[in-house]
């Protein structure tokens, strides 16, 4: 479990505007959306060194070591959703209210942001095992990797939960049409960030690259 920051800290408080009305209008949908909201928010907070010290309904109360960490935690998920979506609409409070997202992992088009997850193509745990845990990586390097837009991809939540922190030797996108692009992106990320590739991983990547059409 993460420890709360000490000394001078930055507080971040979140809330879902109009949630009472949403519960009244469609409780089952709100329950599912809230579960996804909580999962995504906790991920963003933890990835930026935050500590949740209290939750009240759908509101989160958390602390960060710096204002920058708090701001990045609040923005990183929405940045990826906006980048990968079509017709994304944002209200005056910077909340996403509408849009569609094509999920390359399954080939489906998603119309509800609660169905969308923000994936690190090369998962954080995989990056840690393949080089990010070394002394050559500073805290700033790890934060930069976690927030790199080229590493992030908006995908179907269920597919991403199945993927977890697996490499291509253990998980490949169900949509075979994306195998070529997935393998190319995986290799580019590992090369750009100087991360290692194990033999089984290389074999799986070559299998996926074999599906690439001649340019």
The tally of domains stands at 1
Average of per-residue pLDDT values: 81
Report on the biggest sheet: 3 strands, antiparallel
**Low-pLDDT ranges:** none
Outline: flat
Oligomer: single chain
Work out the number of β strands.
Answer: 8
How would you describe this structure to a colleague?
The chain has 215 residues and is an alpha+beta fold. The chain has one domain. The strands form three sheets. Strands 1-3-2 form a three-stranded antiparallel sheet. α1 packs antiparallel against α2, α2 packs across α3 and α7 crosses α8. It is flat, with a radius of gyration of 18 Å. The N and C termini lie far apart (48 Å). The model has no long low-confidence stretch (mean pLDDT 81).
Main features:
215 residues, alpha+beta, three-stranded antiparallel sheet, 8 helices, 45% helix
